[in-house]
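Quarterly update from the structural biology core.
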Amino acid sequence: MSCNELLLEEERFASSSSQPGDLAVMLTGGGARAAYQAGQLRGIAKHFPNLRIQIVTGVSAGAINAIFLAARSGTLAQKAADLADLWCELQCQHIFSFDLLSMMPFRSALASVYPRRNWSRPRGLVDTSPLGELLQRVLDCRPGKPIEGIIRNIDSGRLRAVALMTLDYTTGQSVRWFQGGNMDVFEGPNRRSERTQLTLEHVLASSSLPFLFPAVRIDNRWHGDGGIRLAAPLSPAVHLGASRIIAMSTGYQRTSDEAQTPVVSGYPPAAQILSQLFNAVFLDVIDEDVARMERMNDMLRKMRPEDRQGMKPIDLLVLRPSVDLGKLAGEYEHRLPRNVKLLTRALGAKAAESPDVLSMLMFEPEYTHRIIDIGESDVDARVDEIRQFLGEPASLQAVM
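Predicted structure, tokenized:
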């Protein structure tokens, strides 16, 4: 996205279509670290049991949590509890099966040697069929068919809109798929918006980690993780009419001293390089977008209402881990299945103090249970700030 496009995006952040009270939740990626968001949601539901979230957006692993919220019935407390229970029961075998022979470079090499053989079956480093089967059961849906729970919630008024992001590998465009509401669409050469009825394939595509997970076919095109090339992750919620956004990040914000302290000695192993790549794709972009929105809000608040040309500030609250979830994953490395552990060790994950790439694959109950508890505790620690953001009187007591 060019600088001019980003500026135009910022200028549209607070369009006059936003209606007071439209609360959105934006759920970022991070692989297995997305379990932390289940803890955040459980904490919010504990303190604010009657809270209604009108708009839900998600990308990468956050897309799974977003669709769970959008498709399930019941109160926020019920949804949050069910989501936390789901994450606590997950194991690697429920998400993927390891298939070393399907490594993309390996297949590409074979295709060049045996060009007449069909090597077109979509594969990444792992096979995500188990995740597809799990989501079919949890969301009560079938491949290629609309997720009925989303339709019911929108028709009943419990949900206004939901959006997921993918990357169209065939064009290089970031695609914002949305259902419900009216998106204030602003297109650019590297992105487009598509109204649709969301399916299992949209969820799998948005959460398809590059190289690790296979691409997913949607409308005769191949799509992957929506975090790639997503310059403005907050924009779908804004363009769907949100006036307040709670952004749930899985990225730990390091102190200045932590940021300058080396986490590896000697030449960086592949795991450290991959960790930086994944952080840049899935985590850093939300921080940049938050900074842009805050600058725009400051500028608008200094202007007289009649000079804002219909634009309004967007109330924004960012929730993030109080501890480094990547570093924490290192304590549970021995819990990984043997074949996954061999891969991560071959990449040098144990040589890094904060093996972020390891945390993305740490779909193991001990780890997910712990970071869910951390997410809930982090909400507890900021409950007064959250209450102020939601506009609830300070005298209200938290529901314990």
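The first strand starts at residue 23 and ends at 27.
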